[in-house]
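Escalation from tier 1.

The customer reports that the assembly of four entities below gives different structure tokens on two consecutive runs. Tier 1 could not reproduce it. I'm attaching the input and our single run for tier 2 to review.
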Amino acid sequence: MSAVMGHNRYGKDGIRLVLVRRGEGPHRSDVLRDLTVDVRLEGAFDRVHTDADNSPVLPTDTMRSTVYALAQQHLTGPLEDFGAALAGRFLDVSPACTLAEVRLREHGWAPLVGDAHAFVGGSAECATALVTRRRTGPADTRSGFSGLLLLKTTGSAFSGFLRDELTVLAETDDRILATEVTAEWGYLAGSTPAYDVARSAVRAAMVSTFAVHESRSVQHTLHAMGEASLAACEELDAVTLQLPNKHHVLVDLAPFGLSNDRAVYVATDRPFGVIEGEVRRSG
Amino acid sequence: MSAVMGHNRYGKDGIRLVLVRRGEGPHRSDVLRDLTVDVRLEGAFDRVHTDADNSPVLPTDTMRSTVYALAQQHLTGPLEDFGAALAGRFLDVSPACTLAEVRLREHGWAPLVGDAHAFVGGSAECATALVTRRRTGPADTRSGFSGLLLLKTTGSAFSGFLRDELTVLAETDDRILATEVTAEWGYLAGSTPAYDVARSAVRAAMVSTFAVHESRSVQHTLHAMGEASLAACEELDAVTLQLPNKHHVLVDLAPFGLSNDRAVYVATDRPFGVIEGEVRRSG
Amino acid sequence: MSAVMGHNRYGKDGIRLVLVRRGEGPHRSDVLRDLTVDVRLEGAFDRVHTDADNSPVLPTDTMRSTVYALAQQHLTGPLEDFGAALAGRFLDVSPACTLAEVRLREHGWAPLVGDAHAFVGGSAECATALVTRRRTGPADTRSGFSGLLLLKTTGSAFSGFLRDELTVLAETDDRILATEVTAEWGYLAGSTPAYDVARSAVRAAMVSTFAVHESRSVQHTLHAMGEASLAACEELDAVTLQLPNKHHVLVDLAPFGLSNDRAVYVATDRPFGVIEGEVRRSG
Amino acid sequence: MSAVMGHNRYGKDGIRLVLVRRGEGPHRSDVLRDLTVDVRLEGAFDRVHTDADNSPVLPTDTMRSTVYALAQQHLTGPLEDFGAALAGRFLDVSPACTLAEVRLREHGWAPLVGDAHAFVGGSAECATALVTRRRTGPADTRSGFSGLLLLKTTGSAFSGFLRDELTVLAETDDRILATEVTAEWGYLAGSTPAYDVARSAVRAAMVSTFAVHESRSVQHTLHAMGEASLAACEELDAVTLQLPNKHHVLVDLAPFGLSNDRAVYVATDRPFGVIEGEVRRSG
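Tier 1 run:
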């Protein structure tokens, strides 16, 4: 028997970069960037596996060095531009590479009011970007964010669903709706989006839609959030949303002689519903 | 050989409670409380272990029920008051119990501006409280918070330290200082603190001190943050701080012909320094 | 503007099932199964999103109930058979569903020698399966395992790789090689594999190959492990491996006047290399 | 107002050490040790905080170096001996230090049968040790382990407990009992224990007792496991056990017309009971 390689790729995960752009003068603020970067390369790497020929392999340690070496010159604006510079660099130095993918997450830090050099962090919310470059053609750029926790105490129902003999779920016209938004979107061909403006617009559209939408299901809310995002940013082509349903279960206090009119809930961990979908422009 | 019981206790960890206090009228805001509660009881429980006599054991499942059953009536203000009600209840219903300890963490949710019923969460920062009650005497109440990430890009040095033959650390007069603050404090005997006011005052004092303090070491900053806390809240007796040193290492870019004047850092995970200490009033 | 749905699906994650099959008679052993199950359905669900029409939606709570309700009858053998029963059930009861996917992980417990009813667990290693069924055609069944930690203290080199001006990694002819194997494979069309026999054979082939293979790179080892798996189980079509490179860095003890001849290493967390590839039969 | 230091200490957490002791000759096995080490120093460090005087501070980076520098000479036997050497070293080089505490966890790797240089890992179970040394007097040595998952399918009851009006838990004479054992013990003054022999004996005693004990409560099992440990190792003074009660809840399948005679369970995450206690020799 002989074995051949199918699809394969390699890279580095979890490259942690903090970049400080120093302000000038005693009262100028510093800018703080805090990123985690993952890299993947694809291409003519079969013989690395089959023939132990390492000559095409750019070491993953070099991917790490590259992130640090390019940061000062190329991490001056949106995540997406830094990702494009990194992916381009990998194509330039690795002849065997035909596709370079760079995934970036930026961890938020808020400057402390009144101080130009101190920051507070701690949120799970990240800005994200995924940049893919090939030998020819434009970069494929996707933007997004993750870790945004949203909860509404009313304005969410779930009823009229399919029932089989194993269905015991009660219908409800008023439940807590809670989720942790992961969103990612691409851009219309030929557009030149301002990535950070787009991300802010999409996030704002999603948050305000979540708040005011009369939800009939998580799916219903997903579509509304996607539609509002497309309306808020005309360069967007389509947006993909992952919305776990972080269930909050009303506690039965009747055995204790107590009422519980949508007041006392258990926040549950597992299992949880997962709703995933893409919303795109029609026509 | 015979074996006897030494110190023992039991309880329930990870009780997840979400309480919604509904506003009245269409434009009234809801109040959202999101807590995780741990309970421990101590007392005359030796024979449960040695003689399989369960008659003194209030089930840990009942501790869970108690948190939910008491929430509407007793979680109307600070965490500390809810903890005191819970601990008191456990002493009341369990004759064998001589000490009841309740630990509470509150997960933050910010109301969305312009909407009275939607909230955004996602921060690792929690308000904390630890309430201990015995059969006689006042409750021992400790307040705190955890998960506050702080980072400053300048104003932190570390030099003049002890060196042995295994010491290779370079002295520095300007490094990144980053930490995740865990703080806990007690109150002067006889004081009647407004717990939430105290927590806000302590947090504000710690954050602003961290920002402006010219740090000579994490220990030095710990003392300054503790001192500022005592000054900011006169009911405080003493404050305990845990300050992990989340190291940021300047990357050597010289091999690549690049300068790195306090710009490009690696954020490291492990190992990390840990500085722990109590700061209390003198005299 | 109008927004339409692209690809979408929904389901339940993290359904935790423990099944005990009781032995008969005082000396008969119990069988313990400990699974985590995830479910996804795809199909004609667009109008759930766009029109708030819930009539096609089998609730995710029902997916949970289904796992528990089918366990006694259908979890009598391999994971894959239970997955097929679940996926078939979802197609049966949901007219809108065109594709049902069930992912299963089984957590290992070893019976204690000499006792028929007690078990020891604690390993991160899981058996895995992914079963996908459509309205017509056979189920697509993939088997695998995850969480297998392997380390070898010698017999691993990495040299002759591509160098650019950012490459500082030294070549080595003897390093520690450590990884956490995630493996998944499919079966030849028309084969009727004994899934548990296949999994044992593949695991054994991978482990012994890892041990004795003279590795020139992680990619080289990946191919050897894949090839050995195909040889060990003739029903296998192709096997996909994910091999993170859990770097162990030799500590420089020279500043302390100590030698370090491949003895003292730092086990690092992040970043880490990732090698992913499929090995399939040729011809 | 003036603020003074109360109790304070500092150190390093998460020092990751892998030590390979090379066998000699082609067929000699290597020995693999994989440790995580935490260090704490206490002493005359107040002025570090109050006066920014760093002269007494041995850097935490040096603690890290010390673990690596001492490994080859001192990690030749039990964890406890390595901990004692480290703690002694810190007292030697730090004049301000009056107490040095070293906590060690060893992660298990099993050699692959038939190969002298490859290992399989992946268990959450660790051997643990905590060594505390002061300027005078013997070291205080505590041994233990953590992460041992045990489950029994029968032989566990819980009934006859205290009931109040919030108690809804049903009594049971046959439930699943599952826990993750954390155990730690000290030794009789003047004893010279073989630490690894003691750990093996205690672990074996605990596991076999868990298996065969007719449990009336987790507390009851805790005492039996502690008593068996003291009997199994005569140098032991007292043993402390932490036994979380990893609840398995029988699923109600009656709504589906199915019986469930102790067969189908939900393994729950949170909340969970916690039973903690010390068992010591009487008289």
